[in-house]
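User: Please fill in residues for this 152-position structure.
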């Protein structure tokens, strides 16, 4: 019997998705990898989330595998660059899905000249370091942090 091929999709986050983002944000591994490592309160998350989904400078995506939400990607436009943040649901870590998750979301970016994609990753977060490298990002290390960038 032939194995069914996985299908991936990407959708913009909506108000109703606030709970899953809260769960993902407070996952212990996500907090360890984040630059602000404290547990996030519901009121802090709610304020942050609603600002992000209403901002014209932020694209917040949920990536799904076979219709199941597996993680999120945030693309935040700054002056002449787009800052990238992402996380995978605990259940889907360890399967090499980080690269797929990020590459799906990056396809949503309209190609423009002089736009630089930027990712900031703690040196200890080897899996994310490898994801950015595998997608062709160039990185430099400064103060135990990788700063990745890629022109589009």
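Assistant: Residues filled in for all 152 positions:
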């Amino acid at each position: 019997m032939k194995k069914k091929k996985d299908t991936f999709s990407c959708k913009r986050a909506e108000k109703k998705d606030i709970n899953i983002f809260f769960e993902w944000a407070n996952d212990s591994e996500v907090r360890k990898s984040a630059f602000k490592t404290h547990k996030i309160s519901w009121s802090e998350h709610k304020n942050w989330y609603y600002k992000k989904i209403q901002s014209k400078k932020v694209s917040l995506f949920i990536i799904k595998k076979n219709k199941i939400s597996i993680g999120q990607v945030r693309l935040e436009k700054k002056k002449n660059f787009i800052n990238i943040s992402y996380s995978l649901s605990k259940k889907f870590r360890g399967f090499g899905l980080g690269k797929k998750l990020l590459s799906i979301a990056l396809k949503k970016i309209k190609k423009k000249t002089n736009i630089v994609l930027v990712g900031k990753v703690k040196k200890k977060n080897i899996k994310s370091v490898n994801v950015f490298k595998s997608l062709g990002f160039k990185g430099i290390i400064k103060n135990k942090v990788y700063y990745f960038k890629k022109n589009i």
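For context: Strands lie at 8-12, 58-65, 68-77, 81-88, 116-122, 138-142, 145-151.
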